[in-house]
Amino acid sequence: SMPSEMLLKIFSYLDAVSLLAVGCVNKRFYELANDNGIWLKLYSSSLHPKWAIWKMKSKQTETVSLGCAALQDKKPGYWKKEYIFKQTSAFKTRVMRLVKFLDPYTGLPCKNKEAIKVSGLSWIIILKDKNGKEHVVEKPNLSFKDTSVAVLWHGTDWPCLDILSTLKLFGVTPLLPNQSIPPNKNGPRRFSLIAEYHLANLTENSVVIGADELVQLFSLSPGLLVGIWKEKNEIAFVMANLHYNQLLERSILGSATVQYAPPPNKPLLDDIDSEYGLHDYSLHLDLHGRNCMYLCGSFKCLFCRKRDIENGYLKLRVVNLKDNRKHLPIIGTLGICWETDVFKGNVKDCFVMDLTLLDETGKPFWCFSAPVHMELSTESSGLYDYMGHSYTADYADSEGKVCVEFVWLEETKEYIIVSLVLYVSTKKVNSWYGTNY
């Protein structure tokens, strides 16, 4: 029953976040909270100091004329949208500025933790069942590595796997972040779709990574690991592996329905020649089990020759089977650690591979973070320096393949990488350089 003029006067004392919240009360409050006069005042005072004539008594007449001109012929909510757009753009600029600082060791942004803290970024998953009902899962555990972050969700109230249709992974940031106060979970938030996965027939259509006494692990591309209880055939946990390359862009710059698409590469003038091949590439490789690191290594001056280009791939040999001087020992027993509210465990003979391949200019060319499983090889390695079983671990996506060969040394209880080969898709190379391999 309160007059609209009185409500507008009250609303004029609210900040932007409070205005957005009060607009959710009912239809009348929503219309009043969209008042252009209130939002123009917020817009001018916070983003355009030169418009501070609102507070200058000596220019009161000019203020009135400016306000009238800005409000004339504008639809309700126009200045609210302008305010949010400008604030969001300024926020993205602050965060992306931190991404420009690169680690000379990996070639990737080195201030990701600071950027995540400044942005108030978090990640959530939304499970949708076959009836269209959505289940939101928040509060993940984070594990930071040199080139990736593992995001783990677990709980006791997961929906039944049989009724689920899709899983969506989102980056979530406050719509109007305030660095002086922590983000409010119930405040207005912005969603950025990172990936969408189909869960129908998950156990039949997904890659089996491994299992222990309690759970079985299934991999969904890109970089998602789903743990299923063996007894109940229900979800125990979900782990997303996010590579630092474009991590913040995918988590912030996308929309709630459309994923962020990186701009195409602009190749520099170089001596790229399809008759020669790639040259001076660099690789940074991490193998870990979420909580423990098994291998962290960098490899320089990788190249391929014309004869190494076949079947749609360019081959980069990183570790040669016959050159035991470059063979790599693995620290610890390979496995992926997991945990829930009650149980925890370690699934052996699998790991998370973080691969960062840089081109000759130091730009990230091919990057991923994904779970990989090991298999006992049926072929003998032919290496007389090592007496033990041989294992292989392969990964493939649309941009290339990775083939790794291990040898298990029973005496020292350790794995040795005796071969590591990258196969880069010619389509990826042609798109990157504008050439024709």
Any overview of this molecule?
By secondary structure, the chain is of the alpha+beta class. The protein has three domains: 4-76, no CATH class; 111-251, no CATH class; 281-433, no CATH class. 22% of the residues lie in helices and 37% in strands. It has ten helices and 23 strands. It has helices at 4-11, 16-22, 27-33, 36-47, 60-71, 78-99, 112-119, 202-205, 247-252, 426-433; strands at 122-129, 134-137, 141-144, 148-154, 164-174, 189-198, 207-211, 215-220, 224-229, 235-243, 281-288, 293-302, 309-310, 313-319, 328-329, 335-339, 344-348, 350-358, 364-373, 375-376, 390-397, 400-409, 414-425. Strands 13, 14, 15, 20, 21, 22 and 23 form a seven-stranded antiparallel β-sheet that branches. Strands 3-4-10-9-8-7 form a six-stranded antiparallel β-sheet. It has a four-stranded antiparallel β-sheet with strand order 2-1-5-6. A hairpin with a 4-residue loop joins strand 1 and strand 2. Helix 4 runs parallel beside helix 6 and helix 6 runs antiparallel to helix 7. The N and C termini lie far apart (74 Å). Mean pLDDT is 86; it is low at 50-65.
